[in-house]
Amino acid sequence: MSDRFDAEVQAHAEDSIQREVFGTRLGFILAAVGSAVGLGNMWRFSYTASEGGGAAFVFLYIALTLIIGIPIMLAEFAAGRKSRRSPIGALRAAGGPKWIPVAFFYVGAGFLILSYYSVIAGWVVRYAFEALTVGFPADAGAHFEAISTGPQAMSYHLLFMIFTTIIVMGGIEKGIERASSLMMPALFLILIGLAAWAFTLDGAGEGYAAYLQPVWGDLLDRGTFASAAAQAFFSLSLGMGAMLTFASYLSKDENLNREAAVISFADFGVAFIAGLVVFPIVFALGLQGAVSESTVGALFIALPGAFAEMSGGRVIGALFFLALMVGALTSAISLLEVVVASIIDEFDIPRKRAALGAGTLIALFGLLSASSLDTLGLIDAVAGELFLVIGGLGLAILVGYRMEGAREELEKGASPVFRSLIPVVFVFLRYIVPPIVIFVIWDRAMNVWTVIQTTYLGG
Ligand code: TRP
Question: Does the Cβ of 255 fall within 6 Å of ligand 1?
């Protein structure tokens, strides 16, 4: 075992000479925030909050981010930066070859999530483009029905995969870091502007109430707890090695603890503010009926319907969908990067070829989700929820119990305050994260079963 470990360390020491790195600390943070901030924040968060507990949900979400989100993010950072490898090599280095199957899970999750994420992002691209050229359609429901599946959906999905693949082909510093550094600040500015504008709307008060009215009793519901936890995983891009892979490109001994805090805070902030944009708009036009139907219904039907009716709605709507597109793109990049980095590391294939190959396969597989919303929903329930929580459990156990040098890795560059918290992180990884996550795995597995029954077995 120790020979193997030494050989591994040796190999890394050698190839780290050539490994790509982020140019600046800010570049790394923006890329990681770019991964975290995406479709999950801009709509799913506020929708889930309004369905289960309002402000009570928000508190639960913050608590779960601190209790399971940040420890798992730190576990990913430690495994990635120490090994300087993408998931397969990182798990092998931290736990030995037995752990490689877990990493295949990660790469598989990246592949599957991107395949449908890109379909949804394709709808977003289309809405943004239409807002700029022809405006929002009067009958948003019929419009969505026409474009959400079939050849229309496929073309925009393919277009979005082309953008994503081109950026990843550019590499870490010239592709991902540069794209995130340009796009993330734009997203923040647009979103804050939109929130300020939404505040002036007539229905704003009602909208805020529908979003945040606390219902503490909802917290006792098993489903609320599990969906808050699953939402935290998805929103923070945890459980499939995306943060791990980004950390593997860090060259300096930055304070990983501080970065995890900054990234989690930014991710939560964007999710929270997006709710402050969306709810007043929907309520100002009395479209709340459409909200309760489904997550996609609200984002792609209720909101565009509101933009079509309100004065200035076209400009506001264009900005909103552009911000959403930017968020989706920087997230998609990170999903593809996990797959691409694994191919580069394990098979020594040059980046451009690896990105092109992986991007093409994912684009083709995504055609399944672009032809059926049922398929899209099923892959989301399996890979976007269940796989992530399983992956998170694996990582908590690996880093909490087995990986050598994990603590030292987190101590590097840590200020005294953060340093004193590191033992707490390990207590969480060992004793608190696993039981909570096992409970969530069980709940999400039941959910997958429910989805299969209701959509495929007519139950
Ligand atoms: N976090 C992104 C969002 O909220 C999606 C995402 C990107 C993701 N990379 C990920 C989710 C890795 C899980 C794992 O939309």
Answer: no
How far apart are the CA of 1 and the centre of ligand 1, in A? 35
In ligand 1, the atom with minimum distance to the C-alpha of 109 is: 14
Distance between CA 424 and CA 417 in Å, rounded?
Answer: 12
Q: Indicate the top mutation candidate among 111, 331, 388 to test ligand 1's pocket, ranked by most ligand atoms within 8 A of CB.
A: 331
CA distance 297 to 313: 18
**Whole-angstrom distance, CA of residue 157 vs CA of residue 218:** 37
User: Could you tell me which residues come within 8 angstroms of residue 442 by beta carbon, excluding any fewer than 6 positions away?
Assistant: none
Q: Tell whether pTM > 0.90.
A: yes
Residue pLDDT tens, the chain, 459 long: 455 555 555 555 445 447 899 999 999 999 999 999 999 988 788 888 888 889 999 999 999 999 999 999 999 999 999 999 999 999 999 999 999 999 999 999 999 999 999 999 999 999 999 999 999 998 988 999 999 999 999 999 999 999 999 999 999 999 999 999 999 999 999 999 999 999 999 889 998 998 899 999 988 888 889 989 999 999 999 999 999 999 999 987 899 999 999 999 999 999 999 999 988 888 887 776 666 556 677 788 888 888 988 888 899 999 999 999 999 999 999 999 999 999 999 999 999 999 999 999 999 999 999 999 999 999 999 999 999 999 999 999 999 999 999 999 999 999 999 999 999 999 999 999 999 999 999 999 999 999 999 988 876
